[in-house]
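Protocol step 4 of 6: structure prediction from sequence.
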Amino acid sequence: MSLTNYVIAYITVKDKSQSLSIGRTLIEERLAACVNVIGNMTSIYRWEGEINEDDEAVLIAKTTSEKIEALTERVKQLHTYACPCVVWIPIAGGNKEYLEWLERGV
């Protein structure tokens, strides 16, 4: 088991409904082993020269490095934003049994 094989994708979306839809698709298509949905988040950001403040939701998808490119492309296809936030965070360690389960899930 190589720890560099495991990745968390942090994804923001417009609302909980969209997060559930995208999250379910990622699981159904085996692009992620698990997706956590966090609703009711507020984002403050600059877009096209303007400062914006919007309610959003967050998806945290656990996957492998082999699946992360396909996961990102699928999120971009399903997402309503012109430039969706999908960032990758390598998993540096964790419960060995969980990481083995994660790998079997994708």
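Step 5 (inspection) to follow. The chain has one domain: 3-105.
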